[in-house]
Amino acid sequence: MTRYRLIFTLLVALTINTAVNAQENSIITHTVIKGQTLYSISKLYNTTVEEIVKMNPESAVTLSVGQQLRIPRSTQAKAPKTVIKRNDDGQIYHTIQSGETLYRLGKLYGIAPQEICDANPGLSTSNFRVGETIRIPRIAENAEILANVEKEEKATPVQEEKPQYKHSIKHIVKKNETLESLAQKYNSTPEDILAANPGLENGTLKKNRLIIIPQDKKVNKESDNSKSNNDRTHTGTRNEIPNIKNYNDGVLKVAIVLPFLLDSYAPSEQGRMIEYYQGFLMAVEKLKGMGYSFEINTFDSGPQEKSLSELFTSGALDNMELIIGAMYPTHNKELAKFALEKNIPLVIPFTNKDNEIYRNPMVYCVNSLQSYIIPNVVEHFMNTFTNANVIFVEDANEKSNKKEFIAKLTDELDINSVPNTTVPLSNLTTEETTLLTLKEYLREGKENVIIPTSSSAAMLNTLLPTLQQANIIDTLDIPGYKLFGYPEWQIYAKDTREQMYEVETYFYATFYSHYSIPEVTRFQEEYIKRYNCSIQNIYPRYGMLGYDTGYFFLLATSIYGSQLPEKINDLGFTPIQTGFMFERLNKGAMINKKVNFIHYTPEYRIEKIDFEQ
Length: 613
Fold this sequence. Notes:
The protein is an alpha/beta fold. 34% of the residues lie in helices and 18% in strands. Strand 21 and strand 22 form a beta hairpin. The longest helix is centred in the middle third of the chain and has 23 residues. The chain is globular and about 80 Å long. It starts with 17 loop residues before the first strand and ends with a strand.
């Protein structure tokens, strides 16, 4: 199996380390240790990510603790020194030294880490880099501290004194929790929690972040020996990491198997898979900043006619704790069988129609078949339009592609004695015939809902303009009406948005993103910044799908371990595009049954209706 080696400007910011050994006259061997990325290593040696990848192609895919990289000796830079510079006005600037953190500098200069960030707009733990010079505020008030810093600098580099603890607890931050509330809950102090978590930005806690809560701080060896290490037990809460399989004691091993098709030319498929993978890497980077660690192993599954047997026999997937993939039904079938044999959760992000997949308890289907979604859609429809009168619109020249939905909804309407009828599209093609038809079938005092039997652009583009015009000219004083439709409509919304507002349109969707949603805009901007290209305007958007599935399953697996099936719907996560609500299918796969209604209101707003909130 060919390991995926496409080179991206931004790669996984995995858990790494640093030890340097001289080798030969032309190169240096660098041993990766915890906390480094390709970018940080390139800065350490005054080279570029591209140069490192050129000499170490495998580093374009993954970095792991202990991995050795070959670095050209000619690019080696001198280790950065701590530099303190005074301006004429007394302002102090500090050059960041290896091993320093915002928390340590705050202690060093007697100021809060947040004050350092405020004095250096844009500075945070994520871009706190060795060799960069930052401004130290309020230094005039700390002359004695500065004198001590300069004295220490002339001697040996300052080594941070790390507090030692007999016990510690790993805690997942919940909404509205603070350092003070956690200190009180765990009988600790805010200062000790900060000391144990130097990556906390300005002491601010973020929901779902992993932090360490120190317990029983050691005073000296004598006091340490006076009590047993097992003299304290802790009652777990929902947001604490379960003890059944605590992945955060090490690194979560993940395999992602996608058809990058490195040995062929298929730009459309390759583009979607690369975009998905890039979004996935953004999720990994985000979670790493929250304290989680991953080893990402990426494989090219190749074309659909190629078997994955070579990958399985190589043993590369044997020790994985989570597998994400694949694209083609044949590969999904093979992966599902392997996942069941090895007891490894398998996440399938894309639509799969193989019934065998749905009988496999190790499988998580993100994009479930419509037949599993439709009952939820019908239930939500009945709860949304409690006083409905439904008019189905059928095109005699176009075969319906929503027969299953129409049949199930019609049955439910009839069972509940909800009036409904079907009219031909030909009756709604001109202003005059549309007004007459609506006058005949709309009911006063009812929520009149018009539903086409096809999701096609042709149907929508015929129906919307006449309904809009009828609404405007309405010479017959007809009752009001709404339009209800399908996920595909979000693709056409760019051209029909104004009409959808005026007709008051609803559609159901398992995936949804819109530029008016702040999280969507931020993600698109970050994606463009990282990869110098835009996300494709297709449904679903693969970059967002990669981010959502990556973030959701990496976080859920890290937190819940082997309790993933029971706890998966407890995860607090607001996705960009993809909703998650899993349900076990008999004794088989976990299927995603999440569906939202999207509502284009007459006030020119878009509402995303979440029925589980």
